[in-house]
Amino acid sequence: MKYLLENNAKPENPKQSWRSFFDLIVVDTRKPLFFGEGTVLRQVDTFTGKLRIGTYTGDLQHGTVYSGGSSDIICDLLDVKGKDILYVGDHIFGDILKSKKRQGWKTFLVVPELNKELQVWDQKKSLFEELKRLDVFLAELYKHLDSGSSNCPDIDVIQTRMKVLTYRMDMSYGQMGSLLRSGARQTLFASQLMRYADLYSSTCLNLLHYPFNYLFMAPPVLMPHEALSLNSADVASEFTVTNNMLTKRNVKMLLSNLLDIDEARTVLLPRELNLYQERAGRNLLSLSHTHTHTRSLSLPCCISAHM
């Protein structure tokens, strides 16, 4: 902290102790115990680094360093409620989930991998858009069918294409794939992020791009039945699918009109498909028609859908 806040002071400004920049300083909190019963709160001797004997029970002293304590004690010292605290952490379980459930703190998750995710997404988002179109197209194939229908459309070609697109997206992020997405589906980490983190970004320094009184508001999120009602007219105008039995030839003809890329004529890509099937037997095919939409703020901070 001395290196960050004291050694880089400007000559025209008087040198200040790094402790003067903070209202409360707590060390050795022993998470996740800190978010539960906690430990004994003690003062730290800043000259010797040793703990003073006894439990500290007084008021908050500016510039004093404390050791231990709990999330309840922190709220009492600062005289605030849980919703008044923005907790910044980089661990989805040890930081974000615990602080959200225990105290109801507002949470900011630091995801350093987000820079790479954004870079690849900007380059390969056309693959995701194609996956979305194929997903909607599959829904339209079954739109006029019910439990009494005897004929079922042949969707092998569409499923194969979706697998190839998913494989391409995964490989764009490297051997380990994306941290947040697998094809058209979110990873477990992404779903936990959206549920427990109110804000997330690659670094907490990105908050400097916003004024101190900025109001972060969650975007409106439609439930599946609401999205279905809203999008039904748009989908109907974009696709026209009959009740007739679809053959592979007909599907390929429909796909050639649906896809916006040059490879629409050669939907089957054996080499890429074989590579895809060799990857640990993962089932990355998304047949769900219920999507969760979130709005990203102007970079570099993003807001979750539940804040």
Automatic annotation (TrEMBL):
GO MF annotation, one: 5'-nucleotidase activity
Alphabetical keyword list: Hydrolase, Magnesium, Metal-binding
Superkingdom to which the source organism belongs: Eukaryota
Which family does the UniProt entry place this protein in?
Belongs to the 5'(3')-deoxyribonucleotidase family.
List the Pfam families.
5_nucleotid
Q: What is the recorded name of this protein? A: 5'-nucleotidase, cytosolic II, like 1
Q: Kindly give the Gene3D superfamilies that the UniProt entry links to this protein.
A: HAD superfamily/HAD-like (3.40.50.1000)
